[in-house]
């Protein structure tokens, strides 16, 4: 089984690439963000530690985490972001390891782990290759504004919280330009899969 890690800044179009790999090549996809959210739900392994650290004011009326409130805190304060990461990332990594074993037993050919923090969380140690998906900054900003409704400050905070492009390029095995038409991206992906 080939394990590929896919990363890139928010708004780079990773979701579309993952759908393509799943539809055309039958790749099993693991979104670490979704795994993390599941582990942070009430009763999940991260919930109590997050509430202990950030206080009950980050809970909504159902006593679930208010993701918007938590996001505002961690994207505006690097120390708080690091505190959240220290709670969530080890638990997510344990769950991803469990998923890898499960996929191996199912004889999966291609397992793709998607994470914005693939490099920082050291997923290179479990992946055969790391792929960096990138688009130019203008395209990213437009996508985040129109598809997610983010304002300029939120976009700036999110981009500032992520690694710069040169760090991604230094740490990844391949770089995929997703700035143009998606048909161009598909050609890049097809060539890479052939090379694997």
Describe this entry's structure for a reader.
- With 196 residues, the protein is of the alpha/beta class.
- It has 9 helices and 5 strands, in the order E-H-E-H-H-H-H-E-E-H-H-H-E-H.
- The protein has helices at residues 14-25, 32-40, 47-54, 67-76, 78-105, 137-148, 152-161, 165-171, 182-195; strands at residues 2-7, 28-31, 110-114, 129-134, 174-177.
- A 5-stranded parallel β-sheet has the order 2-3-1-4-5, sandwiched between helices.
- Helix 2 (32-40) packs across helix 5 and helix 4 (67-76) crosses helix 5.
- The chain starts with a strand and ends with a helix.
- The relative contact order is 0.21.
- The model has no long low-confidence stretch (mean pLDDT 92).
Q: Going across the major beta sheet, what is the strand order?
A: 2-3-1-4-5
Largest sheet: 5 strands, parallel
- Structural class per helix/strand content? alpha/beta
Number of helices: 9
Strand composition percent: 5-15%
Our Rg estimate from Cα atoms comes to 17 Å
Helix content: 55-70%
DSSP, total strands: 5
pLDDT under 50 segments (min length 5)? Answer: none
- Average pLDDT number: 92
> What's the SSE pattern?
EHEHHHHEEHHHEH
What is the secondary structure topology, with strand pairs?
Elements: E1 2-7, H1 14-25, E2 28-31, H2 32-40, H3 47-54, H4 67-76, H5 78-105, E3 110-114, E4 129-134, H6 137-148, H7 152-161, H8 165-171, E5 174-177, H9 182-195
Parallel strand pairs: 1-3, 1-4, 2-3, 4-5
